[in-house]
Amino acid sequence: MVTSIEQTLLDMLGKHIGDGRSLAVDTDFVSGLGLESIQVMEFVMEVEERFDIAIDLDTLSNVRSVDGLAAVVAKAVGARS
């Protein structure tokens, strides 16, 4: 079952890549989508803005997919509450 955060990230990522590729929560940003590191960083900046959070680079270095990023976002949003 896809969480609301995961769905939001999938929707955002779909607009970001914009070519209709199939996306799943476990799709790897680099090997699955072929994104360059700058593209991943641009996407993360959009995510930070959308959820009004900041993700540190150490945490981000371990994130490879939507579900991983969703867990980081959920934790950051929860910590803010």
Please explain how this structure is put together.
The structure is a single chain. By secondary structure, the chain is an all-alpha fold. The chain has one domain: Non-ribosomal Peptide Synthetase Peptidyl Carrier Protein, Chain A, CATH 1.10.1200.10. It is built from 4 helices and no strands. The mean pLDDT is 90.
Extended strand count: 0
Total separate domains: 1
Low-confidence stretches: none
Radius of gyration: 12 Å
Measured as a percent range, the helix fraction is: 55-70%
Helix run count: 4
Which shape, going by the Cα principal axes? globular
By CATH, the superfamily comes out as ACP-like
Q: Enter the CATH topology name.
A: Non-ribosomal Peptide Synthetase Peptidyl Carrier Protein, Chain A
- Sheet with the most strands, sense and barrel status: none
- CATH architecture, please? Orthogonal Bundle
Instruction: Report the β-strand fraction as a percent range.
Output: under 5%
Cα end-to-end separation: 24 Å
* String of helices and strands: HHHH
Helix and strand content put the structural class at mainly alpha
CATH class: Mainly Alpha
The quaternary structure here is: single chain
Round the mean pLDDT to the nearest integer and report it. 90
Condensed summary:
The chain has four helices and no strands. It has 81 residues and is mostly helical.
Question: Could you list some keywords that capture this structure?
Answer:
mainly alpha; 59% helix; Non-ribosomal Peptide Synthetase Peptidyl Carrier Protein, Chain A; 81 residues
